[in-house]
Amino acid sequence: MKAVVKLAPQPGSIAVKDVPIPTIAPDEVLVAIKGTGICGTDVLLYNWTYRGRKPVHPPIVLGHEGAGVVVEVGSQVRNLRVGDHVALEALIGCGKCYYCRRGLTFLCPDWEHLGISFNGTFAEYTAIKASAVRPVPDGLKWEDLAFLEILAVVAHTMERIAVSPGDTVAILGPGPLGLFHLQAVRAAGAAKTIVVGVTGDEHRLAVARTLGATVVLKADQADPVQVVRDETRGVGADVVIEAAGAPEAVSQAFRMARGAGQVVLLGFTKMAEFVPLDAVRSCLNVQCVLGGVGRHFEQALRWIESGQVLGSSLVTHRFPLARAEEGFQAAINREAVKVFFETEPDEAL
């Protein structure tokens, strides 16, 4: 089968190679991948700047956003059958620790991660534990199902905050995570949505407009805090979602929220400056969101079925696996919002 392999621990160093179709363990299934997308984590792995909880050991097949058809089932698997359409959960907890026992697998200190600690979805076939495979209805687009994992993160956010009809929501970062949140808050009733990017985000801000953003702006050309204040008669946003992963965006998020407003931090920023006293005096409700669990995947699937939040609306570039390098360059250069790799594996092995 064809697969996109990270060959060595250095920037770049990917290749499309012919590798053996995986052999499955008794608790695994083999999935024919029908579509898979590039995530920001994949870009970090390409650039070799990824610093996760576990080291990555090339050679490894990249990719963790994917969906497809079950073509083989392990002897211990009872909940899946050959022919099932499925989406994949990227993170698999140990099942034994404090967090796994409470259903918080994304906090497991000994997790395994598709495309990071074991071979991923940038391939015609992927072997994965059945516990991380979620059956989905036939007839839904692969471009939507492939992004169920990131949509589950958005569902986690929406579970932890309240968005009411008439609210103003500011979103910092017009990448896929920010734009998925844009769809979700508009579906929840937000009346005014303000999306903040920077120079270089022109393509992504254009997509934000097509998705219904009320205001889009570049933070290096206009003061986003002042714009939010102007758009809310000096009050501030009801909800601020920081999905930029930049220190200045964190600082701006705290300053553009109204008193007793809500601030959500999703970006992976190691250090940022804000004034805790101001946050306390403003009585802010601050949420930090990571990952999703089963109920979030189910919520995300309902969004897809209803057409309210769709991955396909963010797909700007499509490539076969053979053109993986072009796909990565489109993502790295921020020409793309979402890059989608289309595959045509044999479903009748």
**Oligomeric state, counting identical vs distinct chains:** single chain
Q: In what range is the share of β-strand residues? A: 25-35%
Main sheet record: 7 strands, mixed
Instruction: Please estimate the helix content.
Output: 25-40%
Low-confidence stretches: none
**Structural category:** alpha/beta
The number of helical runs is: 11
Number of strands: 18
- From the 3D structure, determine the CATH topology of the largest domain: Quinone Oxidoreductase, Chain A, domain 1
CATH level 1 name of the largest domain: Alpha Beta
Give, in order, the helices and strands: EEEHEEEEHEEEHHEHEHEHEHEHEHEHE
Radius of gyration computed on alpha carbons: 20 Å
Shape: globular
When the domains are counted, the total is 2
Looking at the overall shape, the CATH architecture of the largest domain is Alpha-Beta Complex
The residue-averaged pLDDT reads 97
* CATH homolog superfamily of the largest domain: Medium-chain alcohol dehydrogenases, catalytic domain
Description:
There is one protein chain. The model has no long low-confidence stretch (mean pLDDT 97). The radius of gyration is 20 Å and the shape is globular. The longest helix is centred in the middle third of the chain and has 13 residues. Strand 12, helix 6 and strand 13 form a beta-alpha-beta unit. It has two domains: 178 residues, Quinone Oxidoreductase, Chain A, domain 1 (Alpha-Beta Complex), CATH 3.90.180; 137 residues, 3-Layer(aba) Sandwich (Rossmann fold). Strands 3, 5, 6, 9, 10, 17 and 18 form a seven-stranded mixed beta sheet that branches. Strands 13-12-11-14-15-16 form a six-stranded parallel beta sheet, with helices on both faces. Strands 2-1-4 form a three-stranded antiparallel beta sheet, with no helix packed on it. It has 349 residues and is of the alpha/beta class.
